[in-house]
Amino acid sequence: MLGIESSCDDTSAAVIQNGYILSNKIADQQVHRQYGGVVPELASRAHQQNIVPVVSAALKEAGIKVDDIQAISYTRGPGLMGALLVGSSFAKGMSLALNVPLIEVNHLHAHILSLFIARPGDQKDFPSFPFICLLVSGGHTQLVIMKSHLELEIIGQTIDDAAGEAFDKCAKLMGLPYPGGPMIDKYARSGNPMAFRFSRARVNGLDFSFSGLKTSFLYFLRDRMRSDPEFVTGNRNDLCASIQHAIVESLTRKLSEASQMTGIKQIAVAGGVSANSGLRESVTDLGRALGWNVFFPEVDYTTDNAAMIAVTGYYKFISSWFSDHHVVPAARYDRL
């Protein structure tokens, strides 16, 4: 199985055999850093330049030839339309050329199934079904009950901004480079999470909201910098620790409520923000207190990568969930 990922600014290809990852190659795009965020047109052009060498590198590392490929999985969405078009067009063309099945993959579904990525010889535990997954990324924040590899139920989601977006926007307000989330995590380790307090939204049920938190942070910085223009520089570590604490607390509170409501104690966290050390520590500590079995993907598989696309394609392949070549990429994509 060849997996291809091109939903945003990372071009990635991976090879999986009998459920085990043989290779996972990623080409990132440094060009976006100077703009403070991903520029869609530049992203799609870079994907066109990167996809052939990335696929070639993935096949070489896996030790296979093109003719050995028996199926191709690719990200259909959600994501940037231009970026998705590059990956989907390449996957379709290769599928036709090799006369092998084509499998469309939902990018968010793949983030969850990154929990099941393993290499040959690995001895690791996987979550058992059903389990609750807190899916946190730059564009999405959801609580999902996974009933099987291919059956899920969304029980909560953000009503406005995603947690990852809140991290990045707050980092930008402090003048930190893109991507800002990892920078906040880095500086937060040396800061006091109780130094400053920012408002948390109170949303009914299991839904999230982070727009108010961003606004609270913006006004806080504006007011403090009026009297002290160097306030951010002088308090960077404490600011990062405090905003991280606020976001993580909002996430873990809803996760705890979801576990109590459903009675499920198999708990997982996935998506780009699952690499955040503060979130990992908080969920791990909460799991010890509440008797959860807690699972995280390996940090290398938290960001966008083709390994998660390939492993999702593997489970769809063994269930004969194939696609035809008439399907088109979807910037918003709700189905599996």
Short account of what is shown:
The protein is an alpha/beta fold and 336 residues long.
Topology of helices and strands:
Layout: E1 2-5, E2 11-17, E3 20-27, H1 40-62, E4 72-77, H2 81-98, E5 102-106, H3 107-113, E6 131-136, E7 141-148, E8 151-157, H4 163-173, H5 180-188, H6 211-227, H7 231-234, H8 236-262, E9 266-270, H9 277-290, E10 293-295, H10 306-318
Helix pairs in contact: 1-2, 3-10, 4-5, 4-6, 4-8, 5-8, 8-9
Whole-number tally of structural domains: 2
- The outline comes out as globular
Strand content is 15-25%
Residue runs with pLDDT of under 50 for 5 or more positions: none
Mean pLDDT: 93
CATH topology of the largest domain, which one? Answer: Nucleotidyltransferase, domain 5
- Tally of contiguous helical segments: 10
Q: Largest sheet, if any?
A: 5 strands, mixed
- From the N-terminal CA to the C-terminal CA, the straight-line distance is 18 Å
- The CATH architecture of the largest domain would be 2-Layer Sandwich
H/E element sequence: EEEHEHEHEEEHHHHHEHEH
In the CATH scheme, the class of the largest domain would be Alpha Beta
Q: In CATH, what is the homologous superfamily of the largest domain?
A: ATPase, nucleotide binding domain
Number of strands: 10
Spatially, the strands of the biggest sheet line up as: 3-2-1-4-5
Radius of gyration: 20 Å
Q: Give the proportion of residues in helices.
A: 40-55%
Q: Supply the helix-strand structural class.
A: alpha/beta
